[in-house]
Specification:
The chain is α+β, with helices and mostly antiparallel strands. The chain has 2 domains: 116 residues, Creatine Amidinohydrolase, Chain A, domain 1; 245 residues, Creatine Amidinohydrolase, CATH 3.90.230. Helix content is 32%, strand content 27%. The protein has 9 helices and 24 strands.
Length: 376
């Protein structure tokens, strides 16, 4: 009997969210996952097989070494990874495979040579990943609470700093982005979360949305905090951005902040089951244009609003769905960020980001942290 098609992944689940989602098993080295007629299989080395059998959420864990012995006993050469996969698939009459877009090319070529037909699909590879269970929502909320505690400690440190000649000073020296990022990341570690590429960027640096920030933090100018850690226990991310000024903001910068905040509140109000992510994003673009904030290239540098309004959050920091030009309809149970921003070198930058859970008639904001612009 020939089975129509099987799902195949070969990756390290420590870095591949789809594989972790399928197995709920963390491993630093690549292993084999197969789903055949609804049965989920893992093929594991002797090093990991006992742990996999006790921890993984699959139906069966097979021994790679036992399969290798069978292949050799049948007169085969010393089998590699693909030959092990081939032995399992051949026994079950499988010739068609569905693989993720990041499937290793060398393995794909070898499988093709063995007569397999490979198909792939765009993300999300598992559509059900985009809609969170109640347990997943709790995991993300817990990571968010840790994020808020860390950012609160950072803002308190900024409040203790003194503006002097355009720079913030604390303990007799300039207060740097590096010092604040270290404070945030240590606080996250205390809550068993890991922060990577944490953004604390002020002044001109903040006008580059993904600039992580370096050097002394400016007084009287906007400082963007963008913190997106992953829980070390559950593997789920959270994501939050806040923009603050320590000192006195100019009227123009205050207007910029209020424009972004008002736009974010409108966008959050439009999030609901069935809402079109592309239309929500376009409305923000139109609103900024109507307020006089143009987007385009000026002196070789982009300014205005030149990123998406939101993205899904879960086992990856950026996952389906999107609230952007390529956005799709939202569904109940999805968790998305809402993070409009405006960026103007010379004036400054503002980005405000919350995470919300999509519901049938609106959304529930999972972010509890206040939106305070001027810290005093």
């Amino acid at each position: 009997m020939t089975v129509d098609r099987a799902t195949l992944m070969i990756a390290a689940s420590e870095t591949d969210a789809n594989l972790y989602y399928a197995t709920r098993f963390i491993a630093p080295d690549p292993f084999i996952f197969l789903e055949i007629k609804g049965e989920r299989l893992m093929l594991m080395s002797d090093l990991e097989i006992d742990r996999a059998r006790s921890q993984a959420s699959v139906d069966r864990v097979l021994s790679v070494s036992e399969i290798e012995r069978r292949v050799r006993a049948q007169g085969g050469a010393d089998p590699g990874t693909v030959e092990v996969v081939h032995a399992v698939l051949h026994e079950r009459g499988v010739r068609r495979l569905l693989v993720p877009g990041n499937f290793p090319y060398a393995h794909a070529v070898r499988l093709h040579d063995l007569g397999y037909q490979l198909e792939t699909k765009q993300e999300p590879f598992f559509e059900r990943r985009a809609v969170k269970t109640e347990e997943e929502v709790r995991y993300i909320e817990a990571t968010q609470r840790a994020t808020e505690e860390a950012v609160a400690a950072a803002h308190q440190t900024l409040r203790a700093a003194a503006p002097r000649e355009g720079v913030l000073w604390l303990d007799g020296e300039p207060l740097t982005s590096e010092r604040i990022k270290k404070l945030i990341n240590v606080k996250l570690m205390e809550r068993d979360c890991v922060g990577q590429h944490t953004i604390v960027a002020g002044g001109e640096q903040a006008c580059d949305p993904h600039h992580e920030g370096s050097g002394p933090l400016p007084a009287d100018r906007s400082i963007i905090f963008d913190v997106f850690p992953r829980s070390g226990q559950t593997r789920y991310f959270a994501d939050m951005s806040r923009t603050v000024v320590r000192g006195k903001a100019s009227p123009e910068l205050k207007r910029l902040y209020q424009t972004v905040r008002d736009a974010q509140e409108e966008a959050i109000g439009k999030v609901r089951d069935g809402a079109d992510g592309a239309k929500i994003h376009q409305r923000i673009c139109d609103r900024f244009e109507a307020a006089g904030y143009k987007t385009g290239l000026v002196n070789g540098r982009m300014q205005g609003y030149f990123h998406g309004t939101g993205h899904g959050v879960g086992l990856d920091i950026h996952e389906a769905p999107r609230i952007s030009r390529s956005g799709t309809p939202l569904q109940e149970g999805q968790i998305v960020t809402v993070e409009p921003g405006l960026y103007y070198p010379g004036l400054g930058a503002v980005r405000i980001e919350d995470m919300v859970l999509v519901t049938l008639d609106g959304c529930r904001n999972l972010t509890q942290f206040p939106k305070t612009f001027e810290l005093d």
